[in-house]
Amino acid sequence: MSTYTVAITGASGAPYALRLLEVLVKGGHKIYLTITGDGLTIMKDETGLMLNGSATDIMRALEKRLEAKEGQVNYFAEENMHAPIASGSVKVDAMVVVPCSMKTLAALANGYASTLIERAADVTIKEQRKLIIVPRETPLSPIHLRNMLTLADLGCHIIPATPGFYHQPKRISDLVDFIVARVLDSMGVEHDLSQRWGSLGKS
Asked: For the whole model, what pTM was predicted?
C-alpha cells in the first residue's frame, strides 16, 4: 500500500477531507495527517467530529471514527516541525491539502513555511512529488487565481471543490464523492465512488 500526507485547513469543506480519509483507510493506505486549529473547529461544525486534546487523543479519536488499524493514521499538530513530513528524507507518494484555505494557498505559492502543513507542502514541491490542492472559496479574486497559477506552473494539481451534476446526484454525499473521486484519480488510487462519463446512462 501507499503512504499519503493529508492536510486539512480552515476552509469550508471538511466533509471532503473526512471522506478522503475514509477511502484511504479502507484501502489500507498509511496516512500522515495534520489539521490547522481552524480546520479542527470546522471539522466539528460541518461533520460533528470533535477532535481535541493532545495529538495522541486526536489520533485515537480518528482511528475510532475511521475504523483504522493502529499506526495507519499518524496525526501531527500544525506546530510540530519535528514530524516526519517536515523532512524530504521521509518519502510519501503524494500530499493532498483538502480543503485548502486562501491563506494556506498564499503561503504555499510563496514558499512561506511557518506551519507543518506549509512545510510539508514546501517539501513536496522541492522533492518534485505530487501535491494536490483542493481550494474552497468563491468568488475568486485575482490574487487567488495568481496563487493557483503559480502552484500549477510548479506541477501541482489544482482541483477546486466544484462538483458536477451530470451524474444526477441525489444526496449531498454524492456531491462530496464527486470531488473526492477526482482527488483519488489524481493520486492514482483506485475507487468506485462515482460513475465515469462513458458509463453514464448504461445499465
From this structure: 0.94
| Closest listed residue to residue 18, CA positions, set 84, 82, 96 | 96
Sheet of 94-100, strand order: 73-77, 30-35, 3-8, 94-100, 130-135, 157-158
21: helix, coil or strand? helix
Question: At residue 19, does pLDDT exceed 60?
Answer: yes
Q: By the 8 A CB rule, do 186 and 157 touch?
A: yes
Options 3.40.50.280, 2.60.40.10, 3.40.50.1950, 3.40.50.300; CATH for 3-199 is 3.40.50.1950
Q: Which three cell numbers stand for residue 81?
A: 516541525
Burial code (b: 16+ CB inside 10 Å, e: under 16) for 85-118 equals bbeeeeebbbbbbbbbbbebbbbbbeeebebbbb
- Cα 22 from Cα 17, distance rounded (Å): 9
Please, are residues 134 and 95 in contact by the beta-carbon 8 Å criterion? no
